[in-house]
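#struct-pred
JK: can someone run the complex with 2'-deoxyguanosine-5'-triphosphate? inputs below
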Amino acid sequence: MTKTEIADVLREMALLLELQGENAFKIRAYQNAARTLDALEEDLATVIAEGRLVKISGIGKAIAEKIATLHETGRLQLHEELRASVPEGLLEMMEIPGLGPKKLKVLYEELGVDSIPALEKACREDRIAGLSGFGARTQEKLLAGIRNREAYSRRHLWWRAREVADRILTGLRELPAVSEAEAAGSLRRGMETVGDLDFLVASANPDPVMDWFVRMVEVREVTAHGATKSSVRLDGGLQADLRVVSADQYCFALHHFTGSKDHNVKMRSRALARGWSLSEWGLTAKGDGGEHGGGDPGAIRSERDLFAFLGLHNIPPELREDMGEIEAAEAGELPRLVGNADLRGVFHNHTTASDGRNTLEEMVAAAEAFGWEYFGIADHSKASFQANGLDEERLMEQVEQIHALNESGRHRIHVFAGSEVDILPDGSLDFADDILAELDYVVVSVHSSFQLDEERMTRRLVRALENPHVHMLGHLTGRLLLEREGYRVNVSKVIDAAIANGKVIEINAHPRRLDMDWRHWKRAAEQGLRCVINPDAHRMDGLEYTRAGVLAARKGWLTAEQVLNTRSIDEIREYLGMKNPC
Ligand code: DGT
Ligand code: CA
Ligand code: CA
Ligand code: ZN
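RT: done, structure tokens with the ligand placed:
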């Protein structure tokens, strides 16, 4: 353990001792030792090795031994015992500003409050303000602290983080001092959720860039403001770091801060094997100099150059997850990833007939504006009564409406009439086969009985895929990112069933879903599964979500050939007719 980590442990022990009502002298000993460690300028390992720890004022013999143990093993029995003696929720409560051990003790002993949710409840019920040493203002502050903690500790949906990042990037790029700017990190890799934003700027004059960054209107708190790095918390709790580097470091820093960490580790050892040390600052010749593989790292101006220097094809950010991309880049076998422009239409869209906000006409006009050739409507079926699902009669009316719309010639885009049919708990479908036969295509999804065990859920989905009228499976796991886990289901078996029956599985592009997860796609596509990228749009601007789905497909290594809705309308007709499954 490092000096700082040990100091943190000592501070936590002081808190725990205080919670247990230990005497003030003992508690202060731990606090003093922590402070002394913070201020220690010498190397801790040296001080310990030379037996000088006890000689430092502020550190007694007993604590010196504990520090040595922590330094050597990273653990301390007394610390673990103390932790175990206190409800876990109490430890978490200490992270809320304004809650020291004294207050915690009162809350615990007077009200039995032993967790953050219990504290929030007590605040809302106005039971805190009356406690001695608290008051109404403290109660307010605690509530605000709980709210902030939630916002700060949470990850954020890629879609929302992208909106924020785009605005900031636009601002950065307009600054005269900025020559290049990018949002790196998980955002650039297209992760479905993002922890924080990592901006990177090339500039010879960092000061005005930093000043602009910490003064943006959406900044709620500046947590660091330095010459080359600043950090802020934005409205909504998203954190953002900005690093400014020189123009010749930019591509190295961009690569490093894009990550992922595992990708970086592989890249570094590849560089090392060729005699180079790779870091966020650049490439330097390693060791005695004689061994490195030649070439001039000074000529590297872009990530593409960097990859080439290490004998690799250019690896798109989405693939940098250490899933075999370096091996593929070496062999020249990186996939040509599907792009937004490859899509010629989308299926699975809702209208006001079920729970959508826009009418059929409005949705079709919006889809046409995307330049798509075809557009699929799939409103909910009757079992989804909470979503105003259509019964047979209303569905047949909608089919008529769609046929009339196609024949009217009002739109260039062709509209396919479908339905998002509920898969009932036993795997049968919400509409009988003769109704399904009237539709151009059928999406099937689970919207109820999420609690089935894995085996029954898997059988349910497999049975639905075996129905010859079905074309695609919607949002495979039902997950809602940052809100709800997916239901238990054996994904591999569902994939096998889809392949065996010539069916496609959706990437539901709704930013909260992105389901089926990109992590499954590489292998599934290798086995022959095909994908359809669907926005699950419930309003016109929901069609834009398609972009998030394309990103997920790219993270899953998918090429245009592996995505059904890159096909021409004739090929789609053929597929929907099931004459020639793709
Ligand atoms: P996030 O923010 O949790 O969604 O994920 P990232 O990937 O944006 O991670 P973050 O913000 O902690 O760091 C940005 C990038 O910086 C990360 O993807 C790779 C690089 N990086 C950070 N820490 C390390 C490290 O300890 N070793 C290496 N090799 N790279 C690191
Ligand atoms: Ca990040
Ligand atoms: Ca970061
Ligand atoms: Zn659905």
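RT: quick notes.
The first strand starts at residue 156 and ends at 157.
Residues 185-186, 191, 194-196, 198, 256-257, 259-261, 264-265 surround 2'-deoxyguanosine-5'-triphosphate (ligand 1) (CB under 6 Å).
JK: thanks, will look after standup
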